[in-house]
Amino acid sequence: MLFYRDIVKNFFDRLIALALLVVLFPVWAVIAFLIYLDFRESPFFQQLRIGYKCRSFGILKFKKMREIYKDGKLLPEEERMTRLGRILRRFSLDEIPQLLNIVKGDMSFIGPRPLLARYLPYYSPLERRRHLVRPGLTGLAQVHGRVAVDWTQRFEYDLKYIENLSFFLDLKIIFLTVKSVVDSAVRPIDNPLKVLPRFDQYRNFIRLPGQNDDLQQLQTLILSHCPDFESDFVARLVKRDYFGKVDFDSFVLLDDFDGKYNSFAIFRFDDGSVDQICLYVNTSVWAEDEMRKKYHDLARLYARHFQILRNKALPSC
Q1: Could you tell me which residue, 317 or 188, shows the higher pLDDT?
Q2: SS3 of the chain
Q3: What angle do CA 43, 20, 102 make, to 5 degrees?
Q4: How far apart are CA 26 and CA 31, in angstroms?
Q5: Mean pLDDT, to the nearest integer, of 98-117?
Q6: For residues 30 and 196, what is the distance between their CA atoms, to the nearest angstrom?
């Protein structure tokens, strides 16, 4: 699998992408010219994404939306999409410039879709395994529906692809992708502009301590609300590399509201069970019952992932 992933797949990705760039140049030129006439500026849109081994890169697309604000807020995509942009999205033509990303080695034809850099702190440890392969133009999740699957299902498909990566699986995904594009061309789509909620919004109530956090402030907060804890234990807990190690049995989940820690929970794993050993919720900011449930639901997800991860490789993120 490693030989196919790192040598064969990467070589043919770049070779085929380069050939397609030459063949599709007339289509590229026409689309770019039409977008330029519409926007009167560069027809390309670049955005920071996270790719192989958690390296960031600028993904390239054709522009489909205008920057339109109301009351200081960006309007939803449906209201900013141009008429040409709707056509490009429906037939996935806005993805053509990503052939350059493949030639550069940032992407592959097949793999998990590269997601926004700001989503990175919200992944569970298992979900970060999606960065063990190069991201793709299409993938197992995409052929099961662009937005027909929620975020949890999408990550499950991504991880299933990584575990079963092979030449024949890639061929199957290519066939299903072509079928999906043809189907979208001949059959009306209920809502071609429907998009998933942003992943940071999907999990915005929770995150893990990061490298730029004020860990001393967090340590003081925990000690003030968990008087039975030893300061040395808390110091070790908040400084751990949560995504790079799985040989521990306690972890912290916390909220950050306006730059302040307003709630946190500390859990312990033991033979698959999840025990809450300390909880603090600022009820002027969050409803305690709601936060308690959210913390516990995510803790169970993390516990399941840690059990799987004990013998798995993790990218260094």
Answers
A1: 317
A2: CHHHHHHHHHHHHHHHHHHHHHHCHHHHHHHHHHHHHHHCCCCEEEEEEECHHHCEEEEEEECCECCCEECCEECCHHHHECHHHHHHHHCCHHHCCHHHHHHHCCCEEECCCCEEHHHHHHCCCCHHHHHHCCCEEECCCHHHCCCCCCHHHHHHHHHHHHHCCCHHHHHHHHHHHHHHHHHHHHCCCCCCCCCCCCHHHHCCCCECCCCCCCHHHHHHHHHHHCCCCCHHHHHHHHCCCCCCCCCCCEEEEEEEECCEEEEEEEEEEECCEEEEEEEEECCCCCCHHHHHHHHHHHHHHHHHHHHHHCCCCCCCC
A3: 75
A4: 9
A5: 95
A6: 30
Q: What are the domain boundaries of the chain?
A: 2-202, 215-309
Residue 214: CB atoms within 10 A of its CB come to 13
Number of C-beta neighbours around residue 241 at 10 A: 11
CATH architecture designation of domain 215-309: 3-Layer(aba) Sandwich (3.40)
Beta-carbon contacts of residue 266 (< 8 Å; ≥ 6 apart): 222, 226, 237, 250, 251, 252, 253, 276, 277, 278, 279
pTM passes above 0.70: yes
Residue 45 has pLDDT above 70, yes or no: yes
Beta carbons of 107 and 9 less than 8 angstroms apart = no
Sort residue 82 into left (φ over 0), alpha (ψ -120 to 50) or beta.
beta
b/e 11-25 (16+ beta carbons within 10 angstroms → b): eebbeebeebbeeee
Mean pLDDT for 109-117 is: 94
CA distances for 129 relative to 47, 199, 271, 297, 308, angstroms: 22, 17, 23, 21, 11
Phi and psi at 98, nearest 5°, equal: -70, -10
Residues 16 and 109 sit within 8 Å (Cβ to Cβ): yes
